[in-house]
């Protein structure tokens, strides 16, 4: 099934030039690759957001179990000065 998409002449020329310089045989091939890359980035972002959510949950669990820990910067500085 084919669809017709109306693009401005400038956008079409930009797509065509970018596809050609990227070694693609057609604009369609180039757009398909753009979509694949975009989807991979979206999935990676989702994965990273889930990891951050899990880290935050662990942080909350540790804080509830052990309390809030003090910043150790001053202790490390004092240790270095010895």
Question: How would you briefly describe this protein structure?
Answer:
With 82 residues, this protein is an all-alpha fold. The protein is built from three helices and no strands.
Uncertain regions spanning at least 5 consecutive residues: none
Span of the ends, CA to CA: 76 Å
| Structural class estimated from helices and strands | mainly alpha
Helix content: over 70%
Strand content: under 5%
Using DSSP, what is the number of strands?
0
Overall geometry: elongated
Estimate the mean pLDDT confidence: 95
Question: What is the assembly state of the chains in this entry?
Answer: single chain
Radius of gyration (Å): 26 Å
Topology order in helix (H) and strand (E) letters: HHH
Helix count, per DSSP?
Answer: 3
For the biggest sheet, the summary is: none
Structure description:
- This protein is an all-alpha fold and 82 residues long.
- It has a domain of 53 residues.
- The chain has three helices and no strands.
- It starts with 8 loop residues before the first helix and ends with a helix.
List the helices and strands and how they pair.
Layout: H1 9-21, H2 27-66, H3 73-81
Task: Please describe the structure with a list of short key phrases separated by commas or semicolons.
elongated; 3 helices; mainly alpha; 76% helix; 82 residues
């Amino acid at each position: 099934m084919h669809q017709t998409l109306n693009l401005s002449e400038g956008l079409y020329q930009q797509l065509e030039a970018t596809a050609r310089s990227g070694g693609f045989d057609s604009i369609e091939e180039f757009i398909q690759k753009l979509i694949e890359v975009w989807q991979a980035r979206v999935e990676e972002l989702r994965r990273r957001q889930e990891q951050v959510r899990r880290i935050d949950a662990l942080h909350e669990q540790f804080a509830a179990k052990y309390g809030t820990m003090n910043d150790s910067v001053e202790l490390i500085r004092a240790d270095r000065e010895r």
